[in-house]
Specification:
Elements lengths: L7 E4 L7 H9 L3 E5 L13 H16 L4 E7 L2 E8 L7 E2 L2 E6 L2 E4 L2 H11 L19 H13 L12 H7 L3 E2 L2 E2 L1 H7 L3 H4 L5 E6 L6 E7 L3 H16 L5 E3 L2 E3 L6 H13 L8 E5 L3 E7 L8 H5 L9 H9 L9 H11 L6 E5 L2 E7 L1 H7 L11 H4 L2 H12 L1 H22 L5 H8 L3 H13 L3 E4 L6 E4 L5
Parallel strand pairs: 1-2, 10-14
Antiparallel strand pairs: 2-4, 3-4, 5-6, 6-7, 8-9, 10-11, 12-13, 14-15, 15-17, 16-17, 18-19
Length: about 475
């Protein structure tokens, strides 16, 4: 006799509330309910066998519309009733509520999850529904051209596609029905998608000491096909740093996070989002970035599945196909592999992905920012040096590790030197202005100012607000 699982439930006696379990099995993969057996598999049997064999099927049919198979079993010499529920192609409710069997538990569908379930049961996807009141005039020609430029450039669409009308492009992508653009078309290419779908924008927030300390925020709007470009522009200009270094005589200013990998993470967050759910939210802290999108993983998928070779199962297949044709994502589930390889190549700690609060969270560590600020050195990746590096590279790394403490001290002194120079040119410079100039946090600036004052190099003249800085001695 099997323990309770995805397809088996044991009940000592029949209660009408178990019609919820019938709904749950019918809406999932089907299952069996055994009456007369307790949870610990103790067999008690049933009383009034023939009456229950007649009453239970009638209650199931009248309350749920499900026609069960009801069997009489003899186990350990006692009468047991077996109720077999087949999976149903239509959604099954009990008293207006829809249930679903997940593992050995009964779940109640609510809100967005219920909406998604009902669409799936009817063979529909939210992105495929014609958007009422929308016409081709609401589709942005520039967004269509942007998509075609990328898709043709990637070799995933023929150059002749440029001659297609806007309607033909949408038709070939499966994003128009009976002349009406679908929800997916409006999100991907609409002129003002947020007028119809408010939560399709992308929220960015910069936090200080904790989640209550919101320093600044932005909300990126517009169509989804061009949104990642806008997000990257805002991140690059306002939230992330580009430390300068030289390779020979060539000046380099790479983004602190591997740019291609960051784009891939954002693309995935947008494509796999539950589109009728809440906003994509990126929270930026000193030491990490947290990006969350609503929408759990496909059934039987875990975070470990994503990290290994797996079949791509996009939540919004037509929207994913558009991003694939544009060259933004891969069609074979290789996106996470590319992300990890990019961080390994940059010798940075890999991002971490978790499933929480009904969605997927990506945590990206800001090692370079923390190192530039002088708080820590970059954390090395989990790949061992002898796996992917030459002996010269290993020797260079060892030398770097030996000099890390000295390098941190030099970095901090260099930062303080720059602060003093700024004060000489502008004695009224504020902490916030210094933070922007140096690409570090206000807290880091305050830390350096305290050190300079302790060393007698600078002093504050007047009040904190409206006063100025005086450079006393900078001969050292």
């Amino acid at each position: 006799m099997n323990q309770e699982n995805q397809n088996v439930e044991h009940k000592r006696i029949w209660k009408d509330e178990y019609l919820k379990w019938v709904s749950g099995f019918a809406n999932a993969q089907g299952g069996k309910i055994y009456i007369g057996i307790d949870d610990d598999l103790t067999v008690f049997g049933v009383e009034n066998l023939h009456k229950q064999l007649e009453d239970i099927p009638n209650k199931i049919i009248n309350n749920t519309g499900v026609f069960p198979e009801t069997n009489h079993l003899t186990i350990e010499g006692k009468d047991v009733i077996e109720i077999v529920i087949e999976p149903c192609g239509m959604p099954i409710s009990y008293r207006g509520v829809y249930y679903y069997r997940s593992g050995a538990t009964k779940q109640e569908f609510r809100g967005a999850a219920l909406h998604q379930f009902l669409l799936k049961k009817m063979g529909l996807n939210w992105e495929d529904i014609p958007c009422d009141g929308i016409t081709l005039d609401d589709i942005d020609d520039g967004a269509i051209e942007y998509f075609l430029d990328h898709a043709i450039g990637e070799g995933r669409m023929e150059p002749e596609s440029r001659k297609s009308s806007k309607e033909d492009v949408l038709y070939n992508l499966g994003l128009i029905k009976d002349g009406i653009p679908t929800n997916g078309a409006v999100l991907l290419f609409g002129k003002y998608p947020q007028r119809r779908f408010v939560t399709s924008s992308f929220k960015i927030g910069r936090f200080g000491a904790d989640d209550a300390d919101l320093l600044s925020q932005d909300q990126i709007e517009g169509n989804l096909i061009q949104m990642t470009d806008k997000i990257m522009q805002v991140l690059s200009s306002k939230y992330l740093i580009r430390p300068i270094h030289y390779e020979g005589l060539q000046r380099k200013e790479p983004l602190e996070i591997p740019e291609a990998a960051l784009r891939e993470i954002i693309f995935n967050s947008i494509v796999h989002k539950l589109q009728f759910g809440t906003w994509n939210q990126m929270s930026i802290y000193d030491d990490h970035i947290r990006l969350w999108n609503e929408g759990v993983l496909p059934e039987d998928y875990t975070v470990e599945t994503l990290m290994s070779k797996h079949t791509s199962k996009p939540r919004n297949p037509k929207m994913a196909q558009v991003f694939y044709r544009a060259g933004f994502i891969e069609a074979w589930g290789r996106g996470y592999e590319k992300i990890m390889n990019a961080f390994d190549k940059a010798n940075l700690k890999r991002p971490e992905f978790t499933v929480e609060q009904g969605g997927v969270t990506a945590v990206i560590y800001r090692e370079i920012f923390m190192a530039v600020r002088g708080d820590q050195q970059p954390i090395q990746s989990d790949i061992k040096p002898d796996q992917n590096r030459t002996k010269t590279e290993q020797d260079t790394q060892k030398g770097s590790e030996k000099g890390s403490e000295k390098g941190s001290e030099k970095g901090s002194k260099k930062t303080r030197d720059r602060i003093v120079c700024e004060m000489k040119e502008n004695p009224s410079v504020t902490i916030n202005e210094l933070a922007i100039i140096l690409s570090i946090s206000d807290r880091a600036v305050s830390k350096h100012l305290k050190k300079l004052q302790q060393e007698g190099i600078i002093r504050r003249v007047g009040a904190d607000r409206g006063g100025s800085w005086e450079v006393m001695d900078h001969s050292s």
